[in-house]
Amino acid sequence: MKFSRRNLIKSLAALGSVGFSTKVLAQDKSNPNNLPPNLPEWTPDLGAGVDENPYGSPSEFESNVIRRNVPWLTASSQSSVNFTPLQDLEGIVTPNGLCFERHHGGVAEINPTDYRLMVNGLVNREMIFSIEDLKRFPQVNKFYFLECAANGGMEWKGAQLNGCQYTFGMVHNVQYTGVKLSDLLRETGLKPKAKWVLAEGSDTSGMTRSIPIEKILDDCLIVWAMNGEALRPEQGYPARLVVPGWEGNMWIKWIRRLEFGDKPYMTREETSKYTDLLTDGKARMFTWVMEAKSVVTSPSPEKPILYKGTQQLRGLAWSGKGKIKRVDVSLDGGKNWRTAQLHAPIMTKSLVRFTLPFEWRGEELLIQSRAMDETGYVQPYIQDLQKIRGKNSIYHNNSIATWLVSKSGKVDNVRLG
Amino acid sequence: MYVWVKIVSVLLLTTLIGISSLEASDRAFNLGSIATSQQVKGWDIDVRPDGVGAPIGSGTAFDGEEIFAEQCASCHGDFGEGVDRWPELVGGEGTLNTHDPLKTTGSYWPYASTMFDYIYRAMPFGASQSLSYDETYQIVAYLLYMNDIIDDDFVLSDQNIGSIKMPNQDGFLLPDPRPDVSNINSNPCMENCNVPVKIIGKARDIDVTPEE
Questions:
Q1: A245 lies in the same domain as A314
Q2: Of the residues B54, B90, B94, B119, which has the maximum number of CB atoms within 10 A of its CB?
Q3: Following CA atoms B21, B25, B28, B33 in sequence, which dihedral angle do they give, to the nearest 10 degrees?
Q4: Same domain, A136 and A276
Q5: CA-to-CA distance for A64 and A337, rounded, in angstroms?
Q6: Which residues contact B111 (CB under 8 A, 6 or more apart)?
Q7: Domains by residue range for chain B, with CATH
Q8: Is residue B6 over pLDDT 90?
Q9: CA nearest A275: which of B27, B212, B174, B166?
Q10: Could you tell me if A297 and A279 lie in one domain?
Q11: Residue B193: how many CB atoms within 10 A of its CB?
């Protein structure tokens, strides 16, 4: 479109109509003294100087953008989980302070000087590495999503929690800096019988998971940095395991040991937990990969539609099996779909941002998104999963959610059937 | 001066190569240090289903009742029935295929070794690795007894923990059958799709979402 005078006038007219006549839920709380043609209150005076806040923090006006938990879910905050505020984030990078937390015995406080990683078992040399040793290996910098296997676990039986944050927020996406385990293990060597690794944390829960050696040698990392700075304590400082595309419980934080053996170890976390109970009472075990999934982050229960007219629907998609190939969006509960725009970079086992513009005239909407990954896998409906797995699985609910937009612009998490 | 530096460098280099070829053999980067068997012993605390890794020790349920009451009952109850939201450890047989499954050590856990491994490494909550090996065997024996798996005078030990048969040992399926839905490599419907669009549930009505 040429930016002609006529178009400019049309655009201004459109803006005017959005700002006034089509308001739904929005309340204008602006202070008129700060609006044109007046001089805003922050203009005449000097602001804070450098070093006022040497690390920096978000604007005070963003104080609602925080992790939140559901207190009734767990018996103690030390063995609990909170959720990433996906509805407030843009792009694909989760800020370090907003990455959801899942601890089994609280956050271990570790002086990196006293940190050691032990490698033992079926290796040629049992060895110990300091954090400085790790940083001298060839390094890689990779974006990966981390999703808890129980993300959406409360939604198996029906729409239960009314929020994007609470139903999808056990996922985050950061750039990791670390060493490939395939490089680290060139120091220890591996015995031919080594088939499984026990990864063990040094927190009070001594978190442990068994991982097959093929995965360890394929793309697993020991990392010390996220988004350009040291790991946050709640994300495993000074070092954690990265298991791309696989359930978050395996990404052992505060990692202290890798033991190589010829059989899986059958730890508490891979037997009594993180197993998927089916209707006949049998349970699936070792269900590691996180299948393709997507969510519309806005509109969402926390992000109602405030104005009629032009909207920018946004969302996130991801797959533990590779790259996201396509995301479709429906505004009528799945009857008709439009393909959303994917925003570069589209990386393997990383969140991908999608957007879709649409016009809203105040009608009821049933918003859904449907991800496809490069394997051809299409994100299923909950009924597809329930038919095969029942309703007691807890884990691995990657189904399509539905947001009901009511005529007022309010948004609700609903279940269709 | 230059020649001297060069000679020293050559000597240094020779020494370094000499050391590294002795120490490193096939090591690629010559980083890290060799772990002593004593260092490994201190941290290698895991126990496998076949009993590999089980530390020397033993205990009976009879002995375990007292230590369980002291160390475990405040959260799990005197009989493993669970207090408040803390986990139940006993019961649940026959519930796994119902609408309200109760997963306990007795009804769900496939291996006694996992109980020993977990209790020793992570319990009591907030005082992990403070139990002795004998105390841990006693507590595991008490839980097995409470779940009708062994008698109260059965001596559980490193010798037999790998041969305890748990009721749900065969209750787990491998390998992972996913993708288990049929919509693979299909062209998903884009227009006039036949899907149910009736609202059958609203999270707002359930009313369990935390309020701001």
A1: no
A2: B54
A3: -90
A4: yes
A5: 33
A6: A266, A271, B49, B164, B166, B169
A7: 47-163 (1.10.760.10)
A8: no
A9: B174
A10: no
A11: 15
Amino acid at B3: V
Which residues have C-beta within 8 Å of that of residue B66, sequence separation ≥ 6?
Answer: none
Q: Tell me the C-alpha distance between B37 and B31, whole Å.
A: 19
pTM given for the model? 0.92
Count of residues making up chain A:
417
Query: Rounded distance, CA B38 to CA B40, Å?
Result: 5
Quick one: A264 and A319 in the same domain?
no
Interface of B with A in 119-138 (CB under 8 A): 121-122, 125-126, 128-129
**Min Cα–Cα distance to chain A from B62, Å:** 25
**Distance between CA atoms of residues B109 and B92, nearest Å:** 11
Of A89, A20, A27, A28, the closest CA to residue A309 belongs to A20
Nearest residue to A83 (alpha-carbon basis) of A96, A70, A92: A70
| Nearest residue, CB atoms, A160 vs list B181, B186, B203 | B203
- Taking the C-alpha atoms of residue B29 and residue A189, their distance in angstroms, rounded to an integer, is 12
Taking phi first (over 0 means left), then psi (-120 to 50 degrees means alpha), and beta for anything else, what does residue A349 get? left
Helix (H, G, I), strand (E, B) or coil at A146: strand
pLDDT of residue B210 exceeding 50, the answer is yes
**Which of A204, A279, A286, A367 would you mutate first to test chain B, the one with the most B CBs within 10 A?**
A204
**Measured between alpha carbons, how far is B57 from B133 in angstroms, rounded to an integer?**
6
Maximum Cα–Cα distance across chain A: 77
Quick one: DSSP state of residue A87?
G
CATH code for the domain in which residue A318 is found? 2.60.40.650
Domain holding A341, by residue range, is: 293-414
Kindly list the residues from chain A whose CB atom is less than 8 angstroms away from the CB atom of residue B187. Answer: none
How many CA atoms lie less than 13 Å away from A372 in the CB half-sphere?
18
8 Å CB contact between A118 and A380: no
- Say which CATH number the domain at A267 has: 3.90.420.10
Provide mean pLDDT across the span A25-50: 94
- How many Cβ contacts (< 8 angstroms) between chains A and B? 264
The strand pair at A255-261 and A117-121 is best described as parallel
Using alpha carbons, select from A354, A209, A198 the residue that is nearest to residue A269. A209
What is the C-alpha to C-alpha distance for residues A83 and A169, in angstroms, rounded to an integer? 5
Question: Are A154 and A258 part of one and the same domain?
Answer: yes
pLDDT, tens only, B138-154: 999 999 999 999 999 99
CA dihedral sign of residues A19, A23, A26, A28: positive
Among candidates A161, A376, A416 on the partner chain, residue whose Cβ is nearest the Cβ of B197: A416
Quote the CA–CA distance of B46 and B118 in Å, as a whole number. Answer: 9
Question: Per-residue pLDDT tens for B187-199?
Answer: 899 999 999 999 9
Separation of alpha carbons A116 and A108, rounded Å: 14
Number of compact structural domains in chain A: 2
Which of A22, A86, A28, A25 lies closest to A298 in space, CA to CA? A86
Contact B119, B131 (CB under 8 A): yes
ipTM for this model = 0.91
Q: Of B122, B13, B181, B10, which Cα lies nearest the Cα of A370?
A: B181
pLDDT tens sequence across A371-382: 999 999 999 999
- The beta strand positions in chain B, using DSSP E, are 33-34, 58-59, 156-157, 172-173, 199-202
A100-132 pLDDT tens trace: 999 999 999 999 999 999 999 999 999 999 999
Assigned token pair, A415: 């279940």
